[in-house]
Amino acid sequence: MMRRGVEMRYDSQQDRWVVVLGNREYGLHCGEYFQLLVGKTNIACRLELDSEWYVIMQDVRLNLKIQETYRVII
Q: What is the pLDDT of residues 45-57, one digit of tens each?
């Protein structure tokens, strides 16, 4: 069974990334694991914060752009 992704976006009021599930938003914290959807591929990653938010995936750091939304599987 294929799992659907949910939207992950940056909430500037909370200064953190949130996932949108139905009518609710859930804040994410450093160290949380999820799968980032890149095209048709799910890549396991971990959310982190330095001077900017980023994810670590397969030993590679990817900076997240706060103006973008991403599809993730939680």
A: 999 999 999 999 9
